[in-house]
Specification:
The protein contains eight helices and nine strands. With 239 residues, the protein is of the alpha/beta class. The chain has a single domain, classed as Spore Coat Polysaccharide Biosynthesis Protein SpsA, Chain A (Alpha-Beta Complex), CATH 3.90.550. The protein has a seven-stranded mixed β-sheet with strand order 3-2-1-4-7-5-8. Strands 6-9 form a two-stranded parallel ribbon. Bound molecules: guanosine-5'-triphosphate (GTP) and magnesium ion. Magnesium ion binds next to loops.
Length: 239
């Protein structure tokens, strides 16, 4: 792959993680023309101010501040809509996804339309020891999605996605939270886009707290959205 890369970075209360993430992304993308777009939903911890200060000396960094709106899926979509790159990548900003993997995802687009970081492909690891229940649920939901939608993708809920511009031009993200990812990947595959996986090690968030349901009930509610989405996709598109 050659061409410019836009990284979309959705944040809510990532004050301690965002600057190290931006620094590591800039280092790993040396030699690749890029822009780093942080979409912050008015984080009470002052994430936006950290980004603004950093952006003052780093012209590739842009802040998109949103006030009165919340949501992971809509934040990513907003970043995509404002980006200019020939390819886009999006990821969590809690340092659970190593920024260095972005380089490998970008290079994988040489032979694919979409490249995802995978915890479940051979060589991948889910090492989030901070959220054992979340890890277990993720494994079960992915097994269910593979069974319903096909085994070519092993990590349907990755959230670590790099795609050529034409893919995100054709397919908009739908849903509330993480289930958008199952929806995006299945529709992309069914439309004939080639998806490859890059195994990586997902680690516990570096600082701050998880925004995904931290109570068992909250997790089950969220899990149900993934189950519903997988069933709907199977009915709508087949395997
Ligand atoms: N802009 C924006 N970003 C969000 C919102 N909710 C979560 N995020 C970001 O989405 C990413 C994932 O959130 P996490 O809290 O790590 O949740 P998770 O990775 O699904 O769950 P864990 O495995 O528990 O960490 C992080 O970069 C968050 O800052 C939101 O409402 N708006
Ligand atoms: Mg996380």
């Amino acid at each position: 792959m050659s061409g410019t890369l836009s990284a979309i970075l959705p944040t809510f209360d990532e004050r301690e993680n965002i600057v190290p993430l931006l620094e590591r992304l800039a280092a790993t993308l040396a030699g690749v023309p890029h822009e780093l777009i942080v979409v912050d939903d008015d984080s009470p911890d002052g994430t936006a101010a950290m980004v603004e200060r950093f952006a003052a000396t780093h012209p590739a960094v842009h802040l998109v501040p949103r006030v009165g709106v919340r949501g992971l899926r809509s934040a990513i979509q907003e970043g995509i809509d404002r980006s200019q790159g020939d390819a886009v990548v999006w990821m969590d900003c809690d340092l659970s996804m190593p920024p260095e993997v972005v380089r490998a995802l970008y290079e994988a687009l040489g032979a694919a339309d979409v490249a995802i970081g995978s915890r479940y492909a051979p060589g991948g690891v889910d090492a989030r020891s901070d959220v054992p229940l979340h890890r277990l649920l993720s494994r079960a939901l992915n097994a269910f999605a593979r069974w319903l939608l096909g085994p070519d993708v092993t990590d349907y809920t990755t959230g670590f996605v790099c795609a050529r511009r034409r893919v995100v031009r054709e397919i908009r993200l739908r849903g509330e939270y993480g289930e958008y990812c199952v929806d995006f990947l299945h529709r992309a595959r069914k439309r004939g886009f080639r998806i490859v996986e890059v195994p990586y090690r997902n680690t516990p968030r570096a600082h701050g707290v998880s925004k995904t349901g931290t109570t068992a009930l909250g997790l089950l509610r969220r899990g149900w959205q993934y189950v519903r989405t997988s069933i709907r996709l199977r009915l709508e598109w087949g395997r």
